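Protocol step 4 of 5: obtain the predicted structure for the target chain.
Materials: sequence only (see below). No template structures provided, no constraints applied. The aim of this step is simply to have a reference model before the mutagenesis design in step 5. Sequence pasted as it appears in the construct record:
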Amino acid sequence: MPGIGNEAALKADAQAALGEGETVLAAGVFSLQDLLAPTVAGQMAGGIVGDAVGGSAGGVAGLVVGGIAAREAAAEAKGVTVRLVLAVTESTLHLLRWGDGDASTREVMCFDRASSTVDVKHFGLSRIVTIDDPVSGAHVTLHASVSPVSAQSGPDKDVLAAITRDR
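Step 4 output (structure tokens):
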């Protein structure tokens, strides 16, 4: 699995998953925006249970564990991994599961750049990216980080630049 902030490794990983038919121009680590609500709910439940069992320290531990468990369960229910790779080629945007799985099963969604629209909204040090393809009906809303302290921000910024150019 490539390093989360290593764009060269992310591009190479995406290229291996896609094969040699298209050249990966940029690749970054994104997550489904839909995972935010389950994460918060898991944090609240975990914090309450942890506090009841172990006091303040238990509450903090429960908050962390509950959020992680809920986010992973929500991602699995949607058929994805918590982290996703958005790979940009000249003609296509490929959303891939993070990890070393079989290349044939890693692609979650694919968008034709010619028919798709990309909308990027600023939300503090995050970017909310909505991709719609009216031809295929494909739609996804992703979360990207542009925080200077986030390892994934460099590759994410490169992907954001690539998907918004000429728009």
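Step 4 remarks: The chain is about 40% helix and 30% strand. The radius of gyration is 17 Å.
Proceed to step 5.
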